[in-house]
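User: Please predict the structure of the protein below. I'd like the answer in structure-token form so I can feed it into my own downstream comparison script.

Assistant: Understood. Taking the following sequence of 243 residues as input:
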Amino acid sequence: MALTKISLAETVKKQYRYKLKANIDALSSLVFVQALAILFSLGGVVSSGGGSSSGFSYNANYYTADLIIVFTMVWAFTTAITITTKAYRYHDFTFITNRLSSSLSNVLFLVTVSLLGAALSLLAGNLLKFIMYIQLEDPLYGIHVALVEILIGVIATFLYVLLFGALGYFVGTLVQVNKLFAGIFPILFIGSLIPPAFTLPADIVQFYGFESSLIVFTIKASATVTILFAVSTRIWKRLEVRS
């Protein structure tokens, strides 16, 4: 009797394609989240105040995709946690699979939706400016952005979204190992916002958010994402196949 051998790569590819189709709700929620972010951004993401001079008064507001990107990062975090739950793990049993192939297909799925989320964030930012151009009676001034700067924006946004996706996957994996983590993480998060512990999240934001060099930031983000996914996959392999 001949046995059909299915390679790991083939299994991961099939699971990855299946998850793109099965998790269409996640993409729908992305559109909703970004639409909500646009709504919150209509008043201006940043206001520089106003003033008057020689009988003229002015008020300056800046319209950017910053808030949309933040909402997208939160979406990536929650989506990554969601795909680690039992209900989503049961989807893998449609195939001949193991925990390694399941985790690798999850990683590929998160990379893909993070790239999509980053691209849609920047497009949504342009949509916001178009909406304000139509609605505002006052002049709306824009800054010319070169193609290379757009490319840098896409790469940076993708890495930020993927970073939150990898963190969410790590958190979700730990929660599946032991449900106590579901209570520990919120406590740690709230505790980190209370002085003097507040310096820790501030240092993290400083480390990732204020890096001026794209190359250095890419190295930082890529290394962090790789570690989070690698550790998560190793933990994932310890889970019962159907627990």
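That's the full token string. Residues 8-42+61-177+211-236 form one domain.
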